[in-house]
Amino acid sequence: MSGHLLSLASGVLPEFPPEQTVAAAIAAGWPAVGLWVEPATWTAATASEVRSRTRDAGIVVLDVEVVWLKPGADDPDHLRIIDAGAAIGARNVLVVSSDPDPQSTADKLRRLTEHAAERGMRVCLEFAAFTEVKSLAAALDILERSHPDTGLLIDPLHFARTGASPKMLRGIDPHRLPYAQFCDAPASGPSPQDVPAIIHEALDLRLDVGAGGLRLRDLIGALPASIPLSIELRSKALRDAFPDATKRAAALLDATRSGMAALVR
């Protein structure tokens, strides 16, 4: 059995509200869960129910998402997402950026990191071809300009599709890697220039751990030992096969445990 804390990512159940996502994760036996926080609809009642359910079940809230940085002034909703996460005991908040200015992104991340740290949370930057942080190198450059506590979030799909390899993680301070996402996909994907196809793959075509051709064994070996893993399996096939939230969560947990057992043995 893998020693990694496995978390049900919010993207597995995109059509369900946070309360149902938590209920499904608990019923299916997940030890951790990630939640989508929409400031316009997130209420004190939402936080209270989520906090009560997770506390009673002993389940970890690994992360909340998504803070999407954009050009211009800081967005107050970003602080609200962090505050919502803090209210339910979340450990991390996922951040992506559409701000083309690396220094501006770094400065915004610094302010968010300081706000999150006061609430016991980590801010983690994810890179992807369809964001303005398009590579591991670009993400590391921004982190160096930002705050020493700002984290780096690795998603195996984005990692592979942006040309990164596991050996490129050598030398990165483990403190920068509080958790990672995990999934599988075919070894080859869309053209790097075909952004709509890349987004479609990321949202609908991910595969169970071990069912594709990504270098997951090498990747897990390059990441910190026992790093928590958010199972980011956005998949239309999975959604279609399991419209019920709990059954979908249970099927994914079974497949993930099987895939992880084969991967780390």
From TrEMBL:
What sequence ranges are listed for the domain Xylose isomerase-like TIM barrel?
23-236
Family matches, as SUPFAM superfamilies? Xylose isomerase-like
List the InterPro entries hit by this protein, alphabetically: IolE/XylAMocC-like, Xyl_isomerase-like_sf, Xyl_isomerase-like_TIM-brl
Q: Which domain of life is it from?
A: Bacteria
Identify this protein by name.
Xylose isomerase-like TIM barrel domain-containing protein
User: Which species does this protein come from?
Assistant: Blastomonas aquatica
Taxonomy-wise, where does this protein's organism fall, top ranks first?
Bacteria, Pseudomonadati, Pseudomonadota, Alphaproteobacteria, Sphingomonadales
